Amino acid sequence: MSPSYFIVLLLPLISAQTIHLGGCPDADVQDDFQLEEYMGKWYEIEKLPAYFAEGKCIEADYLLKKDGTVQVVNSQVVHGERMAAEGIAKVMDEDEPAKLGVSFTSFTPYSPYWVLKTDYTNVTVVYSCTNFFDVFHLDYAWILSRSPSLPEETVQDAKDLLMSEGIDVSAMKPTEQDCHEDEDDNSSEEEED
After folding, report:
1. What CA–CA distances, in Å, run from 187 to 46, 146, 148, 184?
2. 21 has which bridge partners?
3. Contact 61/73 with Cβ under 8 angstroms?
4. Contact 87, 102 (CB under 8 A)
5. What CA–CA distance (Å, rounded) separates 95 from 31?
6. DSSP-assigned beta bridge partners for residue 88
7. Burial class (CB in 10 A: 0-12, 13-18, 19+), 49
8. pLDDT 10s per residue in the chain (193 long)?
């Protein structure tokens, strides 16, 4: 199949994606990445567009399983209802444990999930890129936090890191996290009753 025919077939899928000519950037990942410390809940603060995450109040929960893989539960609120997708992540190369792969179905290959930087307790910067014949690539980038918000300076530092790795962040968009305010309001109302 020719690359141009392949692109035409993918157009409906990639219309909301960030597409660039050429191959993927060779981004550096976190040195001495500790998978166990990374586990737990992360809130999406900003991202490059992704067809599978167009809702609000997007969260990712990671749980290390006994076999060394990671149970992934991504959730988002769409039309007022929380929806979740479960998948599996695993370290793809023991020499570079910050380069994980993630899959949400048993019949799809693992997609890259590269942790470029994390402090484990506050912020993480994640990148994923899929190369198509070195003609073009699709990429995703996420700025995640342990809380539903981050100071603007921290977000800008994360974007600066992505840009320093050759990743275009001009299409990054903030993720609405106002559902958590609603949850706080509801719990306050319940306590008053």
Report:
1. 27, 20, 17, 5
2. 136
3. yes
4. yes
5. 10
6. 71, 103
7. middle
8. 444 444 444 444 444 466 778 889 999 999 999 999 999 999 999 999 876 667 899 999 999 999 999 999 999 999 999 999 999 999 999 999 999 999 999 898 999 999 999 999 999 999 999 888 888 888 999 999 999 999 999 999 999 999 999 999 999 999 999 986 544 444 444 444 4
Residue type, 35: L
> The tokens of 71 are what?
């149970």
Q: What are the angstrom distances between the C-alpha of 59 and each of 9, 122, 150, 173, 188?
A: 31, 14, 14, 15, 22
The two structure tokens encoding residue 48: 């490059």
At 9, which amino acid appears? L
d(CA 22, CA 24) in angstroms, rounded, equals 7
